């Protein structure tokens, strides 16, 4: 049964600094590189034949480390559809300073609601509107053809994929957290329904 594995990129410099990152292209920290290496170690039993990532460096760098750790040289497809949610006017801001500027309640609403975007940015609903068509068109096409597929992307683009695969409601998905560098392994049937799910913890 084909596997679809989702991995959020390792810790980035702006994750460490508690800043809204979005589409700003920032590199991994040393911890982020180590998380990517550990993810690769945890995925050595899966023989991926294709990988997908976003147009952003932190995801591409994570994927590169994972594949090097496994010892795989496979096609890599990069697409902006898998980019992180665009945080608009919040991008680059420290999250505490954003709360001081707009108030904790409104910032929490922008971060955690399903369909309320920050100024000039995307909501999770907007992110899903570009991620899910790409998932259906490209990634699940490989699954249907029997390939094991690795997707390395971002917290919110992956949350939209999790929402689709697990048939979660908007109320359910806003409670879902996806840790950096932690592989989520799905087995899918021929109709791309989830048969099993395993979270491979980096500390194991």
From TrEMBL:
Q: What is its EC number?
A: 5.4.2.11
- Residues the UniProt record annotates as site (Transition state stabilizer): 154
Where along the chain is substrate bound? 8-15, 21-22, 58, 84-87, 95, 111-112, 155-156
Q: Where is the active site?
A: 9, 84
Q: In which pathway does it act?
A: Carbohydrate degradation; glycolysis; pyruvate from D-glyceraldehyde 3-phosphate: step 3/5
Q: Which UniProt keywords apply?
A: Gluconeogenesis, Glycolysis, Isomerase
Domain of life the protein comes from: Bacteria
Q: Which reaction does it catalyse?
A: (2R)-2-phosphoglycerate = (2R)-3-phosphoglycerate
InterPro entries linked: His_Pase_superF_clade-1 (IPR013078), His_PPase_superfam (IPR029033), PG/BPGM_mutase_AS (IPR001345), Phosphogly_mut1 (IPR005952)
One GO molecular-function entry: phosphoglycerate mutase activity
Set out the biological process GO terms recorded for this chain's protein: gluconeogenesis; glycolytic process
Xref: HAMAP family: PGAM_GpmA
Q: Which family does it belong to?
A: Belongs to the phosphoglycerate mutase family. BPG-dependent PGAM subfamily.
Q: What is the annotated role of this protein in its UniProt record?
A: Catalyzes the interconversion of 2-phosphoglycerate and 3-phosphoglycerate.
Write down what this protein is called.
2,3-bisphosphoglycerate-dependent phosphoglycerate mutase
Species whose genome carries this gene: Persephonella marina (strain DSM 14350 / EX-H1)
Q: What gene name is given for the protein in this entry?
A: gpmA
């Amino acid at each position: 049964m084909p596997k679809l594995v989702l991995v959020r990129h390792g810790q980035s410099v702006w994750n460490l600094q508690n800043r809204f990152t979005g589409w700003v292209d920032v590199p991994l920290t040393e911890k982020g590189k180590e998380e990517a290496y550990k993810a690769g170690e945890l995925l050595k039993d899966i023989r991926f034949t294709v990988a997908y990532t976003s147009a952003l460096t932190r995801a591409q760098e994570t994927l590169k480390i994972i594949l090097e750790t496994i010892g795989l040289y496979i096609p890599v497809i990069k697409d902006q559809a898998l980019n992180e949610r665009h945080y608009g006017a919040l991008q680059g801001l420290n999250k505490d300073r954003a709360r001081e500027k707009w108030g904790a309640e409104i910032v929490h609403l922008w971060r955690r609601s399903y369909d309320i975007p920050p100024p000039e940015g995307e909501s999770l609903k907007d992110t899903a509107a570009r991620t899910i068509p790409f998932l259906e068109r490209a990634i699940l096409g490989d699954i249907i053809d029997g390939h094991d597929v690795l997707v390395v992307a971002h917290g919110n683009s992956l949350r939209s994929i999790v929402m689709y695969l697990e048939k979660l409601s908007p109320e359910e998905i806003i409670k879902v957290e996806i840790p950096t560098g932690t592989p989520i392994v799905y087995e899918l049937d021929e109709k791309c329904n989830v048969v099993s799910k395993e979270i491979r913890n980096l500390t194991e």
